[in-house]
Write a structure and sequence with these properties.
flat; four-stranded parallel β-sheet; alpha/beta; 285 residues; homodimer
């Protein structure tokens, strides 16, 4: 039995940076320290943070005083304004890559250009990007929605940083038919691309693959879709306890991958659980 | 038995205009009048023109004096220079839509932008567009060739006016992966799109479809490919004499379409030939 962990699986640079910033803030600031929304889509890490004294609030209005940490997904300008109005200290942990996309959206909107944002409508990063578009933004989740857009002489299209590249390419292709001059900004971040590519490759050479991550993490869900296409025996698990002997039956080679918000501990626990299961039941059918 | 002719089949605006310009030139000019390359990819029309005193030359150097007609496909700036050097009168029948694409290529090249031209490498329009790119142009014929291009921070992509839209969309999608900022100019002309769409639709509702046009016409060849995908009983014929009873066997509904260089007479002759064949052999299996 062999366990192979996908390259670039688990926490990305932006999420690691936000975690470090949150913990440093907790050390140096007195008073309440809260993140605006869960810092990462991982219940276990969120619980750890709470235990360390870093809470979570849904909206600026829930915070009375203290320090608010903007998570890596970023927020719309409106949220910054509301925080300022309430005189709340802000530590901005927006991922620098996302910040760059926000600035791009702003620049395009300033030029009066329609900006198609490809991403999950409810994803905080997408909502943040839309907020930076001064009403010029349109969110599109997939190719079918792109085909429903009206024809335009010119428009721009870009992606939520953790969107699936293939889906983004399909949306761009559909927009070519609807747009005389279409500027396509490939803003899918390198870490997302590497993770997707390595997960897809890994799916091709294992018998079973586990995607470890929070159910609410959209980039983890995409890894699951990508892997499932290549390897039907792909399981999306939130933690190692969900691994059952049935999932491992007959598997000689087992792959593990995790999303941008999956901590290394969660991956390690999956490895441990698989090894334990094999030791307890070495003669599998 | 029913015969249906595809909407927008046969001569497009640019080719009709070039024919009119050539004949008017013949009327008003004394001395030799030649087109640079065949005016249209249709042997029959080329023979008609020759009989009317409008010849054809392959290169400016073949013409000693008189008037040269630039055909609808357009030519590179180098050809204009060679004609000027030889003090030959020029009547420029470049299709206005192609002229616009040439200007776009020039403008992009002037800005130092790499320009990917999607089209058949040997097509005169593509060669002309490439000539306008000041060495910044790269011709790509299909998705596979696009995938072989190096990565770039920025580049532009546009199509030969009669290129297949679906193929152009695939190339654009492939380039998204290779380019941070990709500007896609959808320069496939409306006439080409309408012709392809109506031929594809017609293929879906007939038993047999005839594509009438010159073997060297690239847009006619694309119509054949498009129709063949939908209706395997598609025949590419250069003239009505090629229609055999076997092609019509069992067909109740017969479609006809033609490329941008197919004259209405060629379509009419196909209709006549099919009707004759049915009259001679009314009880087909």
């Amino acid at each position: 039995m062999e366990i192979i962990i996908a390259e670039e699986s688990g926490l990305c640079y932006g999420v690691k940076r936000a975690l470090t910033m949150a913990r440093r803030t907790r050390r140096v600031k007195s008073g309440e320290v809260v993140t605006l929304g869960d810092l990462i889509h991982n219940p276990r890490v969120v619980a750890d943070l709470a235990a360390e004294g870093i809470g979570s609030a849904e909206a600026p209005e829930e915070v009375r005083k203290g320090t608010v940490i903007i998570r890596s997904h970023g927020v719309s300008p409106e949220v910054y304004r509301r925080l300022k109005r309430r005189k709340i200290d802000v530590v901005d942990a927006t991922c620098p890559i996302v910040r760059k996309i926000q600035r791009l959206v702003e620049a395009l909107a300033r030029k009066g250009r329609e900006v198609v944002i490809v991403g999950d409508r409810e994803h905080p990063e997408t909502r943040g990007l839309l907020g930076h578009s001064r009403g010029r933004g349109v969110v599109v989740e997939n190719e079918a929605q792109a085909r429903d857009l009206p024809s335009r002489k010119a428009r721009a299209v870009l992606a939520q940083s953790t969107h699936d590249l293939e889906s983004f390419q399909k949306v761009a292709a559909a927009l070519v038919e609807k747009t005389r001059e279409l500027t396509v900004y490939n803003t899918v971040c390198d870490s997302t691309r590497t993770r997707q590519r390595s997960t897809s490759e890994l799916a091709g050479r294992v018998d079973t693959l586990f995607i470890v991550g929070g159910r609410r993490s959209s980039n983890t869900a995409r890894l699951y879709e990508i892997s499932k296409r290549v390897r039907p025996r792909t399981y999306f698990i939130e933690n190692a306890r969900q691994i059952t002997p049935a999932m491992l039956r007959g598997a000689e080679t087992i792959g593990i991958s995790g999303g941008a918000s999956t901590p290394p501990e969660a991956i390690q626990e999956a490895v441990d659980a698989i090894e334990r299961s094999f030791k307890q039941n070495p003669a599998r059918e």
